[in-house]
Design goal:
Blueprint: E1 3-5, E2 15-20, E3 23-28, E4 33-39, E5 46-52, E6 70-76, E7 81-86, E8 92-94, E9 98-100, E10 108-114, E11 118-123, E12 128-133, E13 138-144, E14 152-157, E15 163-168, E16 173-177, E17 183-187, E18 195-201, E19 204-209, E20 214-218, H1 219-226
Parallel strand pairs: 4-8
Antiparallel strand pairs: 1-2, 2-3, 3-4, 5-6, 6-7, 7-9, 10-11, 11-12, 12-13, 14-15, 15-16, 16-17, 18-19, 19-20
Keywords: Nucleus, Repeat, WD repeat
InterPro entries: WD40/YVTN_repeat-like_dom_sf, WD40_repeat_dom_sf, WD40_rpt
Subcellular location: Nucleus
């Protein structure tokens, strides 16, 4: 099971999405009740979620309301990723606007949304994929096969959106340039065990392991150390 909040501000600030089985429930936090369901016909449980507002160019946007839609992405154990566009007043059953292909070779284990219409996905197959999301379709732009030697369990983007940080079951953190997915560096023993989650806030990287211990890195030092 996974859960994400809709947005830190705006019309989606009171929304929360919770994955249960092969679908996702949308909750209104003000009213404390479920107001809708996202169903993408996944053939296995939804393992990870990502949600955020994305800026679309005039060429990418097909409707003047696109800018108000929240992008919600589901990653499943069935290897597939589905993308939903959720309007602020949406209720009831919503179906995906995009199904990303080709799929990964194993279950989806991490997702990271970039505000400029990009998505990064990671899998137990050790690969990281970069996708370009348009309202009607998704396009795989790059794939980094064997980005890690073990399951990739967490990913996060730096505040300026220029660097992707990934962490795996073996405890290694790696840095990638968003533009071309070029490898920038790594810390091989960031944790003794699996890195289950990564979050970046301003100049700090927070990582979580099974021992419920949080490590803190100052990004400027971390980047110098990796290089």
């Amino acid at each position: 099971m996974d859960l994400v909040l809709g947005s830190s501000h705006g019309a989606h600030a009171d929304s929360m999405f919770i994955a249960t089985a092969n679908s996702v429930r949308r909750w209104d936090l003000r009213r404390g009740c479920s107001v809708g369901k996202l169903h993408g016909n996944h053939q296995a449980p939804v393992m990870v979620l990502a949600a955020g507002l994305q800026q679309l160019t005039d060429e990418e946007s097909t409707d003047h309301d696109d800018a108000n839609c929240l992008t919600v992405v589901t990653g499943s154990k069935d290897h597939y990723i589905k993308v939903f566009r959720v309007p602020p007043d949406a209720s009831g059953l919503l179906t995906p606007s995009i199904e990303l292909e080709p799929p990964h070779y194993d279950g989806i284990s991490a997702l990271a949304l970039h505000p400029q219409g990009l998505l990064f996905s990671a899998s137990r197959d050790g690969a990281i994929k970069k996708w370009r999301l348009c309202p009607a379709q998704g396009r795989q732009e790059l794939i980094t096969s064997q980005a890690h030697k073990d399951w990739i369990l967490g990913m996060s983007l730096t505040t300026d959106g220029s660097i992707l940080v990934s962490g795996c079951r073996g405890g290694t953190l790696k840095l990638w340039r968003v533009e071309d997915c070029a490898f920038l560096g790594e810390v091989q023993t960031a944790h003794d065990g699996a890195i289950n989650a990564i979050r970046i806030q301003k100049d700090r990287i927070f990582t979580a392991s099974r021992q419920v211990v949080y490590y803190l890195y100052i990004c400027s030092f971390f980047f110098r150390y990796c290089k």
